[in-house]
Amino acid sequence: MPKPQDPTRKKGSFGPTRLPVAVDLVFPAGSRRMMITGGVLAGIVALFFFIDTIILSDTFSSPGDLSSNHANFETECSSCHEPWGGATSQKCATCHEKTNDRTGVYSYAAHYLYRSGNFGRIQTSAHRTADDEQECSTCHQEHQGRDAAMTIMSDQKCTPCHDYGSFEDDHPEFAFAREALPDDSTLAFTHVRHTRFVYERLQKQSPTVYLEKACLYCHNAEPDGKAFKPLDFEAHCGDCHLTAATKTPNLAISDPADPAAPGVETLAMIQQRRGPGTLWAFYTNPNEFAVSPRGVVNSPVYHRDPWIMENLKQLSATLFGPETSLAGLFPIRRSEKPGTEQKAYAEAISALREYAAGLRSRPEPEVQRDLATIDSLLLIAERRSLMTAEALPLDLFMTKPNPELTASQQQDLEDFARRLAEPCLLCHQVEGAGILPVRSVQRTMARAEFGHRAHVLERRCLDCHTGIPVRQALLNGDTTGVKESDRASTHNLPRIDNCRECHGASRASDACATCHFMHPNKNNRGNLQLAVDRN
Q: Which residues form the domain of 303?
């Protein structure tokens, strides 16, 4: 039996033949140190992962639970992360954009779109914002837990560009109040008078009814409680206005031999002419017109009465010459103000579609072929008018006086148009043989979001809407300021001081994201896609 080796000896035996050999030749000192160090490190790493997995629930390999919206990706890091890197916007776009972010709906360029409705702004602002783009994860940070709200942003995400300081002290006054902008309204309307009428009617049903119930008679909330439905004549006005007894004055009948002489076409004349957009004439009750050698009277008169509208259009064609522009399509006088272009084109396209509808019963093959072409062209025009990044030309809707008419003849025609529209003048304005357009839906504070439902628990309508003193006039009998403010051009909206009564650092939230959003409304994703494809 061999004797044990002396550990102090520098040589040992190797192999079955017991050849003497130095230990350093078998296990060099450098290798021994490397093996010992590596073993210690491997042990530490194994111990760390053991503690991380069993005790700390994977806080190293995963910084925390994903939010509930992304929970299905918790074990699939590559769904969001690049190898050995962070989450990228391209990865986010795979799900959120589904088009590899071609539409740029989450870009800074789209931020300029916001509530403007002009999808072309995504393209026109892209070059200005290219250097400012940031990864989605800069603002939307994950691994904050299942209940984390990734869309709630701190003010620090907004103030680098919008350096307004705190809402309570430094936020600028709302634009409509700061610039004293009038409401772009063409209606003749008084709130106090109408609210009093409705309030007195409601009091007969319930003497204890509160005043704001009269406001809600016309201002009907949307189902989500944020905004209100468009006002509707039949629902809100028809009980009192344009009743069965309403009629036009006796109006002279037009003479084809003297087109410059003021006059209207009778129902029979419109039917005989068969002009575009007059299909309604064949379904209208002729007994509603009293025709005599002295003229014609129309009764009853309807809202947007087609007979009045058609005759206004004919008077407009006489006033402004041949229908060489889109202005001749309808008797609504278009505004020249910027921002009204898309609505003007939408109404023109709608009128052309109505004209085309009157030809669909024609059996001729060539007419049907032309209708198919017209339908295609109208669809293209509709898309381009909605998606264009350029300002649409309003000159197509502008009118120029007919050079063949004298100033006296022009004045006679305009006066006659006002007589024709006399039943409408109680509320509407007529200019140049056209009724000025009314916006049934208005968006004054377009840069912010507001929900009435979240506020009605603590405030009533007239606590905030004080621009017109309805409460003091009806409950206190104080009519001070009513004459000056009670008109449709008054923005009866709260100023910023009203909001500051509740919103502040130590009260209701005054964070930027309480009222403002970064990304535009994405419900019209298809329109965004068309804008990108076209540009």
A: 267-419
Domain total of the chain = 3
CB 381 within 8 A of CB 326: no
Within a domain: 101: yes
Place of tokens 């339908």: 375
DSSP result, 309-355: HHHHHHHHHHHS-S--SGGGG-SBPPP-STT-HHHHHHHHHHHHHHH
Residue range 374-391, pLDDT digits in tens = 888 888 777 777 655 455
Residues 496 and 522 in one domain: no
368 Cα distance to chain centroid: 37
Q: Could you read off the pLDDT of 27-70 as tens digits, one per residue? A: 565 666 777 777 777 777 777 666 655 554 555 556 788 888 88
Q: Which amino acid is at 324?
A: T
Residue 181 belongs to some domain of the structure: yes
pTM: 0.71
Q: Which residue has the tokens 């076209």?
A: 534
Residue 245, domain member (yes or no): no
Mean per-residue pLDDT of the chain: 80
Q: Looking at the structure, do residues 332 and 450 belong to the same domain, yes or no?
A: no
